[in-house]
Amino acid sequence: LEVNSFYSKAELKQIGFKSVGEDVLISRKASIYGAEKMKIGEHVRIDDFCILSGEISIGNYIHIAAYSALFAGSVGMEVEDCSGISSKVVLYSSSDDYSGDYLFGPICPDKYRKLSEGKVILRKFSLIGSGCTVLPGSEIGEGCSVGAMSLVHKSLKPWTIYAGIPCKEIKP
Question: Which residues contact 58 (CB under 8 A, 6 or more apart)?
Fold first, then answer.
């Protein structure tokens, strides 16, 4: 008996996504929270141990590699066509204030927390290298590449290569 490591089309429908296109491969080992708020295009592959949470829109021809996480919350996250998210990438559309002036974490009452929120957008043909962290409100410009292990804390220009902590422009 051979068991496919990806959900079947019927199983994807049962998960309850807002919409899901053709040729979608999502690992059975991925974690999906709030599927009813997620749109998934065509020719999409989401590998093992990925986490998708919140209001997410994924375009066509997208690969999200193993151990990556998209924490979109209610603010949202958009991954446009032909973009790639390498392994161990984390994208946040909200984050606690860790300055020491506030408490943090989802268990703590909201009156003691301060959140930074902003939609995260990966424009067409963008690439996020392995181990990167993308913070709330960041927009990765069309055709932009972000080198491995970089920290993105702002919007990045189209067709430009960035790398570093925090990321800096390397070259067009």
Answer: 38, 39, 40, 41, 44, 64, 79
Alpha helices in 16-128 (DSSP H): none
**3 by DSSP, 3-state: which?**
coil
Instruction: For residue 77, give the 3-state DSSP assignment.
Output: strand
- Could you give the CA distance from residue 84 to residue 63 in angstroms, rounded to a whole number? 5
| b (16+ CB within 10 A) / e for 51-90 | ebbbbbbbbbbbbbbebbbbbbbebbbbbbbbbbbbbbbb
3-state DSSP assignment of residue 45:
strand
Element (H, E) at 11: helix 9-15
Report the C-alpha gap between 160 and 2 in whole angstroms. Answer: 44
Mean pLDDT of the region 36-41: 98
pTM, entire model: 0.95
What does the alpha-carbon distance between residue 55 and residue 18 come to, in Å, rounded to a whole number? 10
Share of the chain above pLDDT 90, in %: 96
Helix and strand numbers, DSSP H then E, in the chain: 1, 20
